[in-house]
Amino acid sequence: MRAWRPILAAAVLSAALAGCGSDSDSAGETTASAGPWQFTDGSGQVVKADKAPTRIIAHAGEAAALMSFGIKPVGIFSDESVKTDPNLKSLDLTGIEILGEEWGKIDVEKAAALRPDLIVGDWWPAEKAHSGMEEGVDEKSKKLAELAPVVGVTQGKSIVQLAEGYEDLAESLGAKVGSPEIAANKKRFEESVTKFKAATAGKSGLTVAAMSPADDKVYVANPTYAPELLDLQGWGLDVLNPASPDPGFPYWENLSWENADKYQPDLILWDGRSYTETANAEWGKKQPTWFKIKAAKAGAVVAWPAFWLHTYGDFATELDKLTTAITAADPNVGA
Amino acid sequence: MSAPSKYATPRRALALGPGLALLCGALAVVAFLSVTQGSRSIGLGEVLRALGSLDNDGSITGTVTLELRVPRTLLGILVGAALGVAGTVLQGVTRNPLADAGIMGINSGAAAFVVFAITVLGVRGVGVYVWFAFAGAIGALALVYAIASLGREGATPVKLALAGAAVTAGLGSVTTGIMMTNVDALNELRFWQVGSLAGRYTPILTGVAPFLLIALFASMFFGRALNGLALGEDVARGLGQRTGRTRAVAFAVVAVLAGAATAACGPIVFIGLVVPHVARLICGPDYRWILPYSLLLGPIVLLLADVVGRVVTPPDELQVGVVLGVLGAPAFVAIVRYAKLSEV
After folding, report:
1. Cα separation of B170 and B167, whole Å?
2. Where are the domains of chain B?
3. CATH number of A26-178
4. CB contact under 8 A, B319 and A102
5. For labeling, which of A89, A143, A320, B333 is most exposed (least CB within 10 Å)?
């Protein structure tokens, strides 16, 4: 996913996202229904086949989502090592071919040998492309799309919709979506949302900004293109909308370090891919203007699960961490 | 090779001294712009107050002026001068009009050592990478020189160019190989992909400044030696010059200049390539003039490009490497097209 790129310069891959993906299930019994199959892709196109696909190649988080419903792909490509990818690191990947562990690089020859009949990757509306085939990837990687039809749920307005979309896809592929494990994750997720809403309601006036500091500039996330931030906004958290996102890459507004203090939130949601316990102190020392953001100076920072969530279980785990941070936050820090 | 008399008319030589003073003035103006202009608009009065008190009162304008812009400007001056002079010396000593830090293995050496530091030694942080990049640049240049020196006739221009290309390719493939298997290294190295003056502050400036100042000072005495080499190997030797030693000393100085500059700011190749040509265009073939002109033209071009990059897209900035590419390439084409470049 291209949204990774601009912050990669600073990325010290996150070790802070432990405990994700506990909803996994690798019992890959797929009983695809006979007869014609179809699915409406995030781009709006309807993809059809004579029978439900069974040999699936999927991008990291999408694979995790399908596996949570018992659909085991034959191949996976991810943007980083499958040992550190927040979606995959706790899953059992035995028997699944790893086709790439770096953004933009997919071994299409290996993929072709798997004879896939479906490729699954999120649809990114800002880039009008599926995960793995965006602008900027190796041209060779894009040939993956020639092996089989590509479908994906849109990275649109909500992670809940994304999770539901993959539930629908899994169901169309023959998964039993009513298992007690899945129901338990949904229930846990709903409880987490309730707690989150209560926490935000108790903190009127709290504003947050989702940020990612990097060596030559600071990035402020644009919630319009970050479904998890839209969800948080919908549940009452005042996530700041940056005034002038990069027109060519609207996931972020880019601030030079001279302008690091343009926004003064009360709490900083720190890109989870580069967040560490000591990151705030380190950036404060390294960049003279980072602590001009009052929240940073006050140490009011928390990891934000940036652009990777796909399942109820992961979202519940991450929401609980945010709820704790919001409960502890002081709504007057940035004033 | 052009005979000196063809370009260096006495009249021209007389004008070169005042021209140098003029360039000093221009550099002062550009440096002033670099401190007063930026992606954050700060009133002139506030900038001057911050500069006048030289004391950061904790306000954001004071911090931006004194801790961001001043070190950035000073670094720009030093690095611009280093790149300009290094390019001039390299072009002179190798008699290759396309010589610059990029083709002599300097950038690839710096990158390879940074990758080595990340993967093998497990170190992190821009402040540390600087030293590995520096060591890598010097190491690569030394390797190029050593390879080119093999054989009876020593380090001839052609052998230097070939050795440079070979070392660049070799180190480049090592770097790529490691990065393919280590995503962490790749992410960290992206910092070096486009040359930039942003995000480099006082520690980096004070770290590389002593090396650059000493090497710049030393390089100003190369004029006569380079003039000799420009006449060709045999003539230079016939004039009593020890060409092998000249080349070795010149390479050592270039290694320090380009190595420290690349370590601090990443690969900024354009300055080293073009500034010597512009200086030669103004001065004719006499390196005693070309060197000081490069010394001043380098920072003027670099700082101007940086200021442009800072003001075009607020609150964002463009890296100086990007600006130089966008503005510099057409400018270079224009120079080549409309002005007859003097030969090396």
Report:
1. 5
2. 4-338
3. 3.40.50.1980
4. no
5. B333
Q: How confident is the model at residue A229 (pLDDT cuts 50, 70, 90)?
A: very high
CA A16 from chain centre, in angstroms, equals: 15
Q: Which residues pair with A209 in a beta bridge?
A: A268
Contacts of B2 (CB under 8 A, 6+ apart): B285, B342, B343
Q: What share of chain A is helix, strand, coil (3-state, %, to 5)?
A: 35, 20, 45
Confidence class for position A24, pLDDT limits 50, 70, 90: very low
d(CA B38, CA A241): 24
pLDDT tens for each residue of A201-217: 999 899 999 999 988 88
Beta pairing class for A207-213 and A238-239: parallel
pLDDT digits (tens, 9 = 90+) for A47-101: 999 999 999 999 999 999 999 999 999 999 999 889 989 999 889 999 999 999 9
Tokens of B315: 């609150």
Say how many CB pairs under 8 Å bridge A and B.
81
From CA A288, how far away is CA B231, in angstroms rounded?
51
Rounded to a whole number of angstroms, the distance from the CA of B65 to the nearest CA of chain A is 9
- What are the residue ranges spanned by the domains of chain A? 26-178, 202-328
Test B184 with A13 for CB contact under 8 angstroms: yes
Amino acid at B126: V
- ipTM here: 0.78
Q: Judging by DSSP bridges, how do beta strands A75-78 and A238-239 pair with one another? A: unpaired
pLDDT of B305 above 90? yes
pLDDT above 70: residue A34: no
Residue A33 DSSP code: P
Burial bucket for residue A113 (CB in 10 Å: 0-12, 13-18, 19+) = exposed
- CATH 3.40.710.10 assigned to domain A202-328? The reply is no
Say if CB B165 and CB B284 are below 8 A apart.
Answer: no
> Rounded to a whole number, what is the distance in angstroms from the first to the last CA of chain B?
6
- Cβ–Cβ < 8 Å for A116, A74: yes
B156/B158 Cα distance (integer angstroms): 6
Dig out the tokens for B88 from the structure: 């001039």
Nearest to B184 by CA among B130, B115, B129: B115
User: Are residues A106 and A98 in contact, defined by beta-carbon separation less than 8 angstroms?
Assistant: no
CA B299 to chain centre: 9
Helix (H), strand (E) at residue A210: strand A207-213
Q: What is the CATH number of domain B4-338?
A: 1.10.3470.10
Nearest one of B250, B235, B247 to B149, comparing CA atoms = B247
Between residues A297 and B245, the one the model is more confident about: A297
Q: Are strands A118-120 and A56-59 parallel, antiparallel or unpaired?
A: parallel
Q: Reduce the DSSP state of residue B27 to 3 states and report it.
A: helix
Cβ distance B76 to B303 under 8 Å?
Answer: yes
Q: Which of B184, B187, B316 sits opposite A256 (nearest CB)?
A: B316
pLDDT at A19: 34
Report the 10 Å Cβ neighbour count for B179: 20
Q: What is the pLDDT of residues B197-248, one digit of tens each?
A: 887 778 888 888 999 999 999 999 999 999 988 888 888 888 888 888 888 8
Q: How far is Cα B148 from Cα B268, in angstroms, rounded to an integer?
A: 25
Domains A26-178 and A202-328 share a fold: yes
Q: Does A197 touch chain B (CB under 8 A)?
A: no
Interface test with B, best of A257, A274, A293 (most B CBs within 10 A): A257
Q: Structure tokens of B237? A: 């030797």
Secondary structure element (H or E) that encloses residue A58, with its range: strand A56-59
- The runs of H, that is alpha helices, within chain A are 5-8, 60-68, 108-113, 139-142, 159-172, 180-201, 227-234, 279-286, 294-297, 312-328
Residues whose CB is less than 8 angstroms from the CB of residue B344 and which lie 6 or more positions away in sequence, other chains included: B91, B92, B95, B96, B97, B230, B280
